[in-house]
Predict the structure.
Amino acid sequence: MYSEYQRKKALQLYDECKSVVKTIQKLGYPSRQRMYNWIADRNDSPKPKFLRKRFNNTPDHPYHPPLALKLETIHRWGGADVFLDLKRPTPFGEQIH
C-alpha cells in the first residue's frame, strides 16, 4: 500500500513529465498498472452509490410472516400434501405397476 502523499507525489511528477515509465524510474514506485489505475481514478468522476431496492414490509404483507400465518395459508390451500406432494419412495426391488 502506498500513502496518500506518495500517490499525490507520483501523480504530480507524472503531470510534469507526461510519462508513466519516467515517473516510475524517478521514484522507484509504483508498478505501471498501479500508476495507470491512479491516473484513471483521478480522472473519473465519483460514482453514485448503488441504491438498494426497498421491500414492502407492511403488516398486511410482512417480509417474515409469523408461523401462525404460514400454517393458516397451508391449511387454506389443502394441507401440506398439496405443497410438498408427499409420496413415499418405492423400496428397491419392488416393481411398479
The mean pLDDT is 82. Residues 4-43 form one domain. The chain is about 50% helix and 0% strand.
